[in-house]
Write a structure and sequence with these properties.
Layout lengths: L2 H15 L6 E7 L5 E4 L2 E4 L6 E5 L6 E7 L7 H13 L1 H12 L5 H27 L1
Parallel strand pairs: 1-5
Antiparallel strand pairs: 2-3, 4-5
Length: 135
């Protein structure tokens, strides 16, 4: 089985386990971690220590693209797939939190701290989902 076939098989398996079957997920194997991505007209640069990136493609939260970097194939591809699908699962919660933080009457510096704290907590939840789903 090729790496691409393995990737698609893992996405299908965990998409079903996480009950994301009503979500359209596009998969792009990206050349490197510094590729530029567009999200609603903004440029996004992928974080240098990640193996993948999820981009929402629709306003209704029903279509996403997962960019899988080639380096993910050298690590635990299964964990990477579950990790990115977990972010999609948690996306409605993230949108709600981002809207609340954005509309708060506080400084941009405090908003950034809140966003960073939310990101840290989201990753803790994602890591727990990985452990539960792989059992």
């Amino acid at each position: 089985m090729s790496k691409r076939e393995k990737l698609y098989k893992l996405v299908a398996k965990y998409k079903k386990k996480l009950k994301l079957t009503d979500i359209a997920i596009n998969i792009v194997i990206a050349e490197d971690k510094v590729q530029q991505f567009r999200k609603r007209g903004r440029k996004r640069k992928a974080v240098s220590d990640c193996y993948a990136e999820v981009i929402e493609e629709s306003i209704d939260g029903k279509e996403f693209t997962i960019f899988i970097f080639k380096s993910a194939f050298e690590e635990d591809l299964e964990d990477t797939v579950i990790h990115e699908l977990s972010h999609i699962l948690l996306h409605p919660m993230r949108n709600a939190a981002e809207n609340l933080i954005t509309n708060m009457d506080i400084s941009d510096k405090k908003k950034k701290k809140l966003f960073d704290k939310f990101d840290d907590q989201e990753h803790k939840v994602v890591n727990n989902i990985i452990k539960m789903v792989r059992k």
